[in-house]
Amino acid sequence: MATRAELGQPWHLLLDALLARRVELAADISRRMQRRLSVYQELAAESFERYVAMAMECTVRLARADPPELSDWQTRVLEEVGEAQARLGVPVDQMLLAWRIGANTLVEHGTEEAGRLELGDRQLLNFVRGTLAASDVGMITTARAHRRAELERDRETRDRRASFVRAVLFGTGDHGELRARAKSYGLDPGRRYLAVRARPVADGSWRDVDRAVGLAAAERASRGMSVLVDGDVAGFQVDPPGDATPGRAGVGPAEPLNRLAESFRLATRALDTLQAFGMTGTRDLAELGLRPAVSADPDVGAALRRRYLEPLAESGSGAEIVATLRAYLAAGSHVETAAEQLHIHPNTLRYRLSRFEELAGVSLRDPLVPFEVWWALQRALIDP
Predict the structure, then answer these.
(1) Alpha-carbon 40 to chain mean position
(2) Inter-CA distances, 13 with 17, 53, 363, Å
(3) What residues form DSSP beta bridges with 232?
């Protein structure tokens, strides 16, 4: 499509006049931006004047085309302007307002030039339309570049935070550097923190678990931080974590930053134990008792299952005996309590226990036997 300049439109003389005054106009636009927009008041003019000049010249040159279409170099120039505004911390809405200030300033100066050049209203209108159309294209192009730069900056910020949290949890960072970085994130490096590792259930969301245990709130309050580790929410916080139900979370003991790796190891072990036994909620190792040992030592569990549970296969009532043993041990070896829970007569329960002793060749009066039977039964929950 032909350009206005190619068609010999006289108003393009206004564009030539504005280009000849580019340095003066860029300074004027910069001053107006600083007067009207607070974000630019906080910046030294020299930090953004160059980009104002680039955007202004690009707009004036682009205004010659109908419709305004960016060349490769104009696209690169405008993208640089948008990226620079993002780096300077200028919000995109403020940048767009600055574009409007720039376009209005060009129109104002162009109107003055039109009077000197004795151009009519129609030619002035063409100039205004062309300038505003070019400005709109510039606004869109810089806004896209600004957004890309923001996303990249946010990604880099998230990556740096994640690397810090991982360094703390896995004990891979220098202590002095970790303390300095903790301060930069608003954390108190002298405090003790609880390591937490949480996991959603099959149909759950890690965000729900994150909110439930309190890691998200802790991060907002600068009282902790979190990151995803192999699909789990992992982190540390000052306050005790909340109940993760229906998910599960392991928590370690409170430790300073340079010793949180051990706390995280224990939190991971607690979480793995919860997973193995199909348990939910938030627990530490102490609350799980011997279950972490049962879960972590399959060889002992397999040996005890062979010793105490496999002989029951010879009996047609093996499943009943196993259920009776579970109830009996859960009731603290109290026959009447266990019988009531199973809704059977105490003598029936005694008979089943006697049958177990006969099949396994052991006596439940031996203090070690009930403990080993309990271990075997717990392992059977993991490996049915």
Answers:
(1) 31
(2) 6, 20, 109
(3) 229
